[in-house]
């Protein structure tokens, strides 16, 4: 489990690509301090397992399904990536519940500077649009963000200067792809409201004090 609060930006030191998989080696300083083999680290929003450790570097395996469903296959040597360690049980919780399981990829439509903010519209797959709502949460490349607008097949996020400085999102441009993880609670509610699966609908949730 993650919070979506990026701890540092790392650099791809090396990639070993197979036909449909790869091994990533990432240079960093903070997230590796207390890391061990088998620990989970979010890389651009994708939960991956540490398989090797060295001075200021760690390696992870990326399996075919992850290659297919995320933007990790676009990384090259020198690419910058958002990094976050799995949340400690006794730590403070500052973002929103992020699992590190990417729901799909989006495409940046536009980026506009407005005072101290950067407004970014992201085109998302049709099947994900039901999870986006004004003031709802979304993780973009692993970064916990608030949704400020939803229209057609896109949603808008806004970066404050601190987020722009501490993550890779502001360095992207229109046409760039990003990993999207929808709000976990929204997904559970949507699943519970499918009558063919559970018999629970909006009326049931309201009757039992959930709405």
Automatic annotation (TrEMBL):
Lumazine-binding repeats lie at residues 1-96, 97-193. Its EC number is 2.5.1.9. Pfam families: Lum_binding (PF00677). Homotrimer. Catalyzes the dismutation of two molecules of 6,7-dimethyl-8-ribityllumazine, resulting in the formation of riboflavin and 5-amino-6-(D-ribitylamino)uracil. Pathway: Cofactor biosynthesis; riboflavin biosynthesis; riboflavin from 2-hydroxy-3-oxobutyl phosphate and 5-amino-6-(D-ribitylamino)uracil: step 2/2. Coiled coil: none annotated. It catalyses: 2 6,7-dimethyl-8-(1-D-ribityl)lumazine + H(+) = 5-amino-6-(D-ribitylamino)uracil + riboflavin. InterPro entries: ATP_synth_asu-like_sf (IPR023366), Lumazine-bd (IPR001783), Lumazine-bd_dom (IPR026017), Riboflavin_synthase-like_b-brl (IPR017938). This is Riboflavin synthase. GO terms for molecular function: riboflavin synthase activity. One of its GO terms (biological process) is riboflavin biosynthetic process. Residues 1-96, 97-193 form the Lumazine-binding domain. Keywords: Repeat, Riboflavin biosynthesis, Transferase. The gene is ribE. SUPFAM superfamilies: Riboflavin synthase domain-like.
